[in-house]
Structure formats: structure tokens, C-alpha cells
Amino acid sequence: MKKYTTPVACLLALLQVTSGFSPSGLQSKHIVTCPPSSSFAAYTNSNNNGCFSDKSLHCNVNNSRCSNSRLRMSDGSESSAVPAKQGFIAKMKSKIPTKSERKKLVPLAMMFFFILFNYTILRDTKDVLMVTAKGSGAEVIPFIKTYVNLPAAIGFTALYSKLCDRMEQKDVFYACTIPFLLFFVAFAFVIFPNVGSLHPHAFVDKIAVALPQGFGAPLAIVRNWSFALFYVMAEMWGSVVASLLFWSFANEVTTVDEAKKYYPLFGLGANVALIFSGQYVRFVSSLRANLPPGVDPWGMSIKYLMGAVAVSGGCLVSLFNYMQRKVMTDPECVDQEKQAAKKKKKKVKMGLRESAKFLVSSPYIRDLAMLVISYGMCINLVEVSWKSKLKAAYPDPNAYSAFMGNFSSATGTVTLVMMLLGRKIFRKFGWRNAAMVTPSMIGITGLAFYALTIFAPFFEPIAASLGTTPLMLAVVVGAAQNILSKSAKYSLFDPCKEMAYIPLDQESKTKGKAAVDVVGNPLGKSGGALIQQILIFGVGSLAAATPWLAGILGVLLFFWYKSVNSLAGQFEEAMEASGESA
Fold this sequence. Notes:
This protein is mostly helical. The protein has 19 helices and 4 strands. Helix 4 packs across helix 8 and helix 15 packs across helix 17. The N terminus is likely disordered.
């Protein structure tokens, strides 16, 4: 028997136990004693029946009690030398949210469902109203976004800033959401049935005679002022309720780790709403076939659609009220100390000018704004051209609405798939690469659509071989571009943007988010619309401006990529400063 007392001998002993290695090449029994000062002293509490004694580490090899494949640990339990792989069921269980997480995540997902259910109906309806109205068309959209929607967004931001200074955040939610719902009900049952007397068609016709033809689009806004108002309110629902109010509340009740795991999955339930709302719009459009003579089919459709918006909005407000009573007061769901600190913290009141200076001085907020503005400009440049072709293919309001219903359902289906991929993209590639997906998708599909439009004669034989026309081929390709771009936005762009707000202080979260989402989004769309207006006046038509639009799209994508890289570095630093993983 040979005894070793050096710490190195402990390593030799471990090799001897696990692989049969013998330091002296002997096959006889070897006992190795490690002094208490060695790194193996932690194993000196086992009983005498194990491989390790209670005073010093004795590895006894030449017996059946300590085999080459197993080690007996200090508590007498057996542990494999190689950790066992986690089974499939165990992996699935580890991905299921805990009870406290489910308590807040399920209502949040349902809130997002009802918000997007409404937004899909409103988005489809606003386009049908304005594009198919008397004396109107797709050319009027850039003017609405620039001269009506943008001023309304700036005005709301000032109002929202004052509301945040004077009211609690939960009361701000009610004060902003309920007026939207009341307006949509009033539009369906009071305003729309009386548009004949409310719209000044005769007055606008007199003015149109004295003005150049280029003023047709602005005059169409005046002519159909109630439709333009509906258009703005529908746009604001997406900016205010979906982007600002919901995500502000979600950021308040979730941590960054929870956001990484579950924000991409919020859209799973929400984009089921796209499918349901799209099919509901299509169902309502199909009811016109059974209407008796003398009944306005589009008026009936408006009532059914806005009735669904009102019911869905009621569910949204009820869920928010439930979360205020049951979730926000639960210490397992929300950190009560942080909530109390937020309430005690004195609010710094700033006017619109001071708020603008505060936001412009922050590189973080500027990069976030650039992301939102770039998306709005890029999607608007392609979308308006597509909608002009869509009107040519579907001039009837109900036919247009039915197509948009199918479009929304397809968007929801594709987004569901993208949501599942989004979680893996976040986990494997990180925030930076996830944020790069949306501009890449818009760039590839947008340039493909422009190529089809610019080189239309080249694609005529292809369209004929497919049994369709170049117009319908452009409509289908444009629809695919919008579907893929919007699915990338819902599944990756929005979660990336909302995660970036979490490490910010409360002042930047509320006023910064209001400026970025409520002003930045319409500013991006208005910027794209202004570019189109300039090109239309410069080259004569939207079709003639298509090559210029393609080039401008490429420039915007360059600045979008640049902002993503800049924000990614700041986001990682902010996460490190807050002690969370980026």
C-alpha cells in the first residue's frame, strides 16, 4: 500500500477513481490521503461506508464500493460523472410561465388581443372610407397624414404630457381610451347616416372650378371631413392605445428577463385577433347580398363593425381594471416597493418646449425615434403606391373591404409563425440582430414591388402565363410585401422597441415614449407622405415617381441600420448599469 499526502496526489486519486489510472503503474490497492488544506477538503463529511472518510479524503479503488463510473458524495447519494440531459417534458415545463407570471401575462395578452382586434377593423375601415369616397382616392392619404394626422398627434402629445403631470397612470389610460370608443360609436350611428347633409359637396365643387387640378386631394379632405376625422382617430388608436398606453403599462409590470421571454409571444394571442377581425370584416361585407332594396349596404357594415369595436373596447377596459385590482397590488407579480417609490417621487412638470428639449438632448431617445420614423417612412412609401393599385382593382367599397379582411387574416397567420421564430431569434442572436430583421424584410420586399412596377412591361408575359393581369400581379405582390413587413414589425420590431424603454427612468419612459410613439410614428408617415407630394408635383404622378421612391427607400434603410447599431450599444450599457442581462 502506498500513501500520498500532497494536493497533487488528490488529482491522481480522482483520475484513479474515475478512469483506473495508477500513479505508480501498480495494480494493487492504493489509498490516497489529502490534507485538510487541499481543495478536496469539502468532501470530508461523508460516512465511513463511502469512498471518502470523515477525516481525510481516502479514495479506495480496489473494491466494489467505489466503481470506476460512480463517486459516492458526502451525503451518501450517487452522482453521475456526466450531468444527465434534461428530458423533453422537463424542458417544456421550464418554458411554461410560473403562476405569478401567468397572472399578469394572460390578461396582458388578452388586452393586446382586443386592442389589435379593434385596430385591424379601424385600419381597414378608414382606408375604405377615404379611398372610395366621392372625389377622393389613394392620393389623398399623404395629405391626411401630413396636414391632419401629424398636427393631431402633436396636439395629443402636449395633452398627454399634462395628463401625466396631473393624473395617475391608470387614470390616464381611462381618460385616453374611453373617448376613442365613444367617437367610433357616434360615427356609426350618428355621423355616417347623415353624411349627405354634413359633407359640403356643393361648396367644394364651386371652389374646385377656380383652383388647379393639383388641389384635388386637399379638397377631398374638406369634402369628406368626417371620413378624414375617422381616419385620424383610427390612426391615433394605433399610436395612442396600442403603442403608447398598452406598452407603457406592460413595461411597468414586467422585467427585462420576462420581456425577452414573453414579449415576442404576446403577439401570438394578439395576431389571432388579426385573423378573427379580418374574417369578421369579410363576413360583414358578405351580408350586403341579403339586404332588402333601399338599405345602404356600406352604412349597415359600418354599424356592425363599430359595434364590434365598442364590445371589444369594453373588454379591454374591464381587463385593465382587473389588473389594477388584482395584479398591481400583488407583491408576487409587481414589486410593491418600486411602485410606492414611483408614487412618492415628485413629478417634474415640463411644458411642450421643455419636453422637446429634454428628449432631443438624449441620444437614446433620438435613436429610438429614428427607428420609429424610419419604419413609418419606409412602409408609407410602399403602401400608398400599393393602395392606388388596389383601388383600381377593387373600386367597390365592400369588395375593397372584403379584400382587406383577407389581407388582415393573412397578416395574422404569417405573424403567428414569425412570433414563434422571434423568440428563438432573441435567444440565439440577441437584441441587435433581432432589430435588424424588420428593415431587411422591408428593403427586400419593397424593392421587389418597385421592380415589378417600374419594369411592368417585362412582367406582362409572366402575368399572362399565370392567368392574371399585371395590375392584379402588382396587387398580390404588394399585399405580400405589406404582410411580411407588418409581421416582422409585430413579431420583432415592436418587442425590440419596447424592451429598449425598460431600463430608462420614469420621466424618459412616459414623456419619451409619448414623443417617440405618438409623434414619431405619424411624423414618419407624414415624412413619407411629404416626399410623395413633392415628387408628385415634380414629376407629375405617383407612377412616374416610383424610381425616385425606390432610391429614397434605400437611403432610409441605411440610416435605420445605423440607428439600430447605435441603440444596441446604449441598450447593452443601460442593462449592465441596471444589473440585468442585455
